[in-house]
Design brief:
This protein has 2 domains: 191 residues, no CATH class; 210 residues, no CATH class. 55% of the residues lie in helices and 16% in strands. A 6-stranded mixed barrel has the order 2-3-8-5-7-6. Strand 2 and strand 3 form a beta hairpin. Helix 1 crosses helix 12. The relative contact order is 0.19.
Amino acid sequence: MFVFFKILLEGFVLALQEIWGNKLRSFLSVLGITIGIFCIVAVFMMVDSIEKSIRGSLSRLGDNVVYVHRFPWDGGHGDWWKYLKRPYPSYKDFKAIKEKAVLADRTAIRIMLFGKEVKYKKNKVQNVKVTAMSHDFGDVFNLAFEQGRFFSKQETTKGHSSVIMGADLAKALFPSIPDPIGRTVKVMGRNMTLVGVLKREGKSIFGDTFDDDVMLPYNYMRRYVDVNSKQVMPLIAVRAAEEVTIDELKDELRVLVRANRKLKPKEVDNFSLNQVSLLNNFLDQIFAVVNVAGICIGIFSLLVGGFGIANIMFVSVKERTHIIGIKKSLGAKRHFILFEFLIESICLCILGGLLGILMVLGIVFVGNWIIESFSLVLSVYNMGLGIGISVGIGLVAGFLPALRAAAMNPVEAIRSK
């Protein structure tokens, strides 16, 4: 064991001496490994960061919630023309599900309007997204409040002029008012009473947080807009009751929506029942392709770097042939010589891998300073993967040169000088 660590230390020192003594040659050889590890780790880092952000956004949709919409979330095999002809979910669909579904715990409907103005005295914010929702929306989406509350049952049923705001919007309208609850604001030119401010969710890659949104009771908005219009993008969300599976709920919803739309038995559904798992499966396919693409790019770079390391190791063996002969004549075993050059090759590759990882860390630092929609994170696993690949390349690239050095005849090696 002591001898092994001695060989390891000697190989590491020789590798550093080789790099220092042949700076340009070593730099060009290590550069290929650096670029290869950078490509692989950077792609994995980017994919993991984006995937974490997206799946975090999707988690709010709930694993036990079914969404009635006209488009399928898994892409629907590309038959978009058929889906475009479908009607949006209607208020009648919502009422049918709300009144007749026995497997549902909560049923909510929401519509959205864009580009509206919200005003408080002289402060105003334009291009605000307005969401009108039924009473169960808060429970289905687990809305959390910084101040105030959700709409009461009476406010949603009778359509009171009450409003809820996201944290960023409230801050913009009430910069110097710590508690704005009860204030009167103008939404789309109409006076409304602020009853709640949501907790800040932070930026999302989809931009789907409520931080800059205004929320109104659904029945209030029914007086002023066509809630079944495609411009307001209606969506129905149904949460399953306890011990009810998603499939059971979907079966019941399919029957109820088909009956409400008076579809004949042989007619296909003109709606889609979506769930988070459909999006997760779709994302799995996308990220798998991106990972493969990143691996392919990295492999080409690693091949170039591997040949560079093999070349420098052959040159190193040639230059140290005399020393190898002396070591073998003094009793050095073949496997000692083999380990010595393998360790040197691995050290060169690890150096290249560390430089590649440092470059990725630089991108993470700069990216998090610039990007707001999601955070870049370089995991310990990806760093370990980069180092592991470096070690593997070092073993493969250095094996033949090390084998040639180990197989040398000591007499001929000494005479080579």
